[in-house]
Automatic annotation (TrEMBL):
Top enzyme class: transferase
Originating organism: Hydrogenobacter thermophilus (strain DSM 6534 / IAM 12695 / TK-6)
Family membership noted in the UniProt record: Belongs to the fabD family.
Occurrences of domain Malonyl-CoA:ACP transacylase (MAT) (ranges): 7-296
Superkingdom of source: Bacteria
InterPro entries noted in UniProt: Ac_transferase_dom_sf, Acyl_transferase_dom, Acyl_Trfase/lysoPLipase, Mal-CoA-ACP_Trans/PKS_FabD, Malonyl_CoA-ACP_transAc, Malonyl_CoA-ACP_transAc_FabD, Malonyl_transacylase_ACP-bd
Protein name, UniProt field: Malonyl CoA-acyl carrier protein transacylase
Keyword Transferase: yes
Amino acid sequence: MGKIAYIFPGQGSQYVGMGYDFYREFSEASDVFHSAEVALRYNLTDIIFKGPEDELNKTINTQPALLTVSLAIYAVLKANGLPKADFVAGHSLGEYTALAVVGGVELFEAVRLAYLRGKYMQEAVPEGVGAMVAVLKLSPEKVEEACRLASDVGVVEPANYNSPEQVVISGERQAVEKASQIVKEMGGKVISLKVSVPSHCSLMKPAADAFRLKLAQTPIKNIDLPLVQNYTAKAHTMAHEIRENLYRQIFSSVRWYQSLQYMAEQGVDTFVEIGPKNVLSKLVVQTLPHARVMNVEKVEDVEKVIKALR
């Protein structure tokens, strides 16, 4: 067997009730949920388990919620003998989960950063002004061209390079709608995303600048296990590089499939998604069809995945 990477999901994977079976059955998981509530000083667990969905889908809640659930699942896996990974990575918000897993930031600080990141992103663009659309069946180069052609009416940029088959665009609603029309004329397919902010485009620069001070004040440590970051699609272990890339990630494209390709080039042939749903697992399959892919979302996945990794 080659090398192993643990990968952690970002926004879009959340749903009401996620992680409840871990919370109910494992003290390692419930401890993570309780620590997150202490860090935030509000009842995040209630929002995660009971909703309502609209409340959970607010970026300010979604980000700490996803981080908490993924870390709770990881804590259970670790307690049950999960082998050490060779690389970790996370999609957008998931990068903070990955950093916490390898000891680059403490749980308390990671939850606070996720909350503040969501807060500043939510405040940067009024709801309804921005939009995000997933583009399918079109090459990344053609999607970039569509964005350029639509930029005369406003900001529209590639936000997530999810796989060679899927790129998400983000920006001002009017420009995103024009780019979507161009995409259709090019033979692509578009799916509107239910989001409250247009992430990973230049509209998020004010959010990133506000967040930068919080990042500077947060103790981030050098790490031994490499973190493949969205901004560079390369591995980093030095705290000053990690901090800078977290800042830039907010208003830059998530280079996800490039990150997967980079890990494959380093010898990774097994990817384990840890957290709600299996969105990233599907993107791995689209990008690296020969990779071994598994995900841990439910309690029954724990034993099965650990056994497969031994």
